[in-house]
Design a protein that fits this description.
A hairpin with a 3-residue loop joins strand 2 and strand 3. The chain is 42% helix and 19% strand. It binds adenosine-5'-triphosphate. Pfam families: Pkinase.
């Protein structure tokens, strides 16, 4: 029977095998697969996120993916190797509840972040998210359940993926996905876990951020078999808000980027690059001809002040 591990703040979770002690501070979030708490390691440890599963089997498969990712990351000498901290069982009322402890990401879901700080942030957070996906793909895994809730952004604009429950090895079927971001739902391709699958989800996530109402209208319109690339492409072409991303999006939804690395490089050159250059040109140093005129105005101003206080 699935468990419902709902514990109040102050509860001390002690690992059955490794004896690690974690005090629950508050609930960070609850999803279909489990509940995640903000915890403090005792004695005197730092803060972490601790996830307990409603269904032990599902949580175990998530732990397996994370463990395998950790070892691949550390083999590749990557710093993300510290995401998973501990795996254990919590024995309470005669039952064992599996849990794992991970890095606590102090951030907010990308849609809330963009709502609060403005759509200018899309270019840089998008670039960082594509980089994360490309890193994951290089290790042989596809994220599969890319959606705004699974992308946390820190206040410095750093991006972290959370919820590895949907991660699948390349070539397998996506086991966990969310309709709006799913290639199959839009009749745009299969549900086989390949790099283009994540790039497609990224494109839909971007459309959601900027044209959420339109996307909802398309998703709810007509029969499922009529849902497809046509209406999506038409939205990309006509939307004013999507115009800086139009070229990139059109290729992404059609699966034209072979992998996330190519999608990342294309974004860097055609989306991030122009915006960066525009910003730099706005803060360019004053042109040479302006310097003598500025000096002259300063002199006149100084003279005027002296005249005033004479
Ligand atoms: N490492 C973390 N740091 C901070 N908050 C986190 C972390 N992991 C998860 N959370 C929070 O907990 C919530 C639920 O976690 P998670 O998405 O892993 O659960 P889930 O049951 O797999 O969800 P879903 O129903 O989306 O599959 C997240 O939406 C997020 O708010």
């Amino acid at each position: 029977m699935p468990l419902d591990p709902d514990f109040s703040p102050g509860t001390v979770v002690t690992g059955k095998w490794k004896q690690g002690k974690y005090v629950i501070l508050r609930t960070l979030g609850k999803g279909a697969n489990g509940i995640v708490y903000l915890v403090q390691r005792e004695p005197g440890g730092g803060r972490y996120a601790l996830k307990m599963g409603f269904n032990g089997v599902d949580l175990q498969s998530e732990i397996n993916v994370l463990t395998s990712l950790e070892s691949r990351y550390s083999q590749a000498g990557h710093k993300s190797a510290s995401y998973l901290k501990e795996v254990d069982d919590y024995r309470t009322n005669g039952i064992d509840i599996p849990f794992y402890v991970m890095k606590y990401v102090r951030g907010e879901p990308i849609h809330h972040f963009i709502q609060k700080h403005g759509s200018d942030w899309i270019t840089i957070t998008g670039l960082r998210l594509l980089k994360k996906l490309a890193e994951l793909h290089r290790l042989g895994y596809i994220f599969c359940d890319l959606k705004p809730q699974n992308v946390l952004v820190t206040r410095y604009g750093e991006v972290e993926l959370i919820d590895y429950g949907g991660v699948s090895p390349v070539g397998r079927s996506a086991k966990q996905f969310t309709e709006w971001y799913d290639r199959g739902y839009w009749n745009a391709g299969s549900r086989v876990a390949d790099p283009e699958y994540d790039v497609f989800s990224f494109a839909l996530l971007l459309i959601h951020l900027l044209e959420g109402d339109e996307l909802q209208r398309l998703a709810g319109e007509g029969l499922p078999q009529l849902r497809g690339m046509g209406p999506l492409t038409a939205l990309i072409q006509r939307s004013e808000r999507l115009s800086p991303y139009k070229g990139w999006l059109a290729q992404a939804v059609q699966g034209k980027f072979e992998n996330a690395e190519i999608a990342f490089l294309h974004w860097k050159k055609h989306v991030y690059g122009p915006v960066k250059r525009q910003r730099e040109s706005r803060s360019e140093p004053a042109p040479r001809w302006l310097i003598p005129s500025f000096a002259l105005s300063a002199l006149i101003m100084a003279g005027a002040i002296m005249f005033l206080f004479r």
